[in-house]
Amino acid sequence: MSSDVLEKRYRMLLRAYPADYRRERADELIDTLIGDEPTTRRWPSAREAASLVRGGLRVYGGGTAPRPTAVLFWQGIHLGALAVLALGVLIGLDDIVEAFQFGGLSDPLTVLRNQGIHEIALIAALVALVAGRARTAAVLAVTAAVVPTVISQYLFLNGLPQWWAPVVATPLIVLGLRRPADVPPAPRANAVLVTAGILALHLIPAGGLRMADAGPRIVVAVMVVAGIAAFLWVATADQRLLIAVVPTLLLGTLHQLDNSGLTGELLRRPDALPSLVVAVLMAVVAVVSTRQRQRTRA
Amino acid sequence: MGSASRPALREPSYFVLAALLGGPLHGYAVIKRVKELSDGRVTLAAGSLYSVIDRLLGEGLVTADGEEIVNGRARRYYRLTDEGCLVLTEEADRLAQAARVVMDRLPRRVQSQASARHPSTARIRPA
């Protein structure tokens, strides 16, 4: 009986693997996990659970693909485009809510002209990309960068990060159109999950590290460390995330560069240049090490 | 296919290949055999084992060797390919040569101290 419960729980954990892989291997994995010896365990060990989740992430990251580097690179840039558009949408929504909170209700048409059109175009590009319509997404991303700016230069002149989102995403989407036929697209549900994870990373209030009070600063420091640790735990198994996070950090850097120029602020802000440099280095290391591993005997 | 240009096997891959030297094994048996061969140093979790097996399958060093149904579940067996056997032999030879470089130069006193301290678990890392 306990073995049935354990098997059920292992099967839940196996959902970390892509559906194709599960179809091929789930029974075999369960057989290996349960083993031959009688067990009274009802719960998988933390070690087995972590190993299964990381195993699933490795498969998603191209670990079993004939060309892992190609999967890492092409799916990484697709996820990067998704993440940067989603971040732009999130920041844009936050700013629109803020605009309405501070007097925008008296002149909603101005808010719509200044921010709403851009937000709608950005959401449309994001939806098209999630739906796998890359060409449409590219056109919509260009539209999001150009048309709202022609109508109102509010976002552009204020150098707001959401204005940069389609600018950063467009070349990635266009580059993604050249994905080789033997590299599969990232599964949609997985792409949405990866995007949500990267957004969660950006929602950590890292700016709080610069607060004067020690108490809140410690809380923020714990959140930052936990967030980075969780990200690295996932991203060292599914290295597409190391590529996908780069454009989102480029957004913060471009925003700072636009607003403050080459000042110390660019180096001090946690979501700007320092994180971008680290992220780029990690992405390069991921691609190079995957290439080497591809050449290495197992 | 000169061995000089072939990068070293990683430790889990080395032990998985070594476990299959005795004949085809299924996943759970591979885990047990690897633990036994490495004196308990290499304990593979199932997720890690299948990451290794997937890589070895991709490299053509192991191959699936039949299935049987046990407790209503498919149990797949794996065996070494000729290429896998060759790679494992070359790796073992390389490790033995690397070990000899040190052992031949160690003073006898240090050798006996080391073997007294760790009679069977002296670790030789793949380069």
UniProtKB/TrEMBL annotation, chain B:
Organism: Micromonospora chalcea
InterPro entries per record: Metal_resp_DNA-bind_regulator, Tscrpt_reg_PadR_N, WH-like_DNA-bd_sf, WH_DNA-bd_sf
SUPFAM superfamilies: Winged helix' DNA-binding domain
PANTHER family, per database record: PADR-FAMILY TRANSCRIPTIONAL REGULATOR
Domain of life: Bacteria
Residue spans crossing the bilayer: none
Name of protein: PadR family transcriptional regulator
Pfam families xref list: PadR
Domain Transcription regulator PadR N-terminal: start-end pairs: 16-88
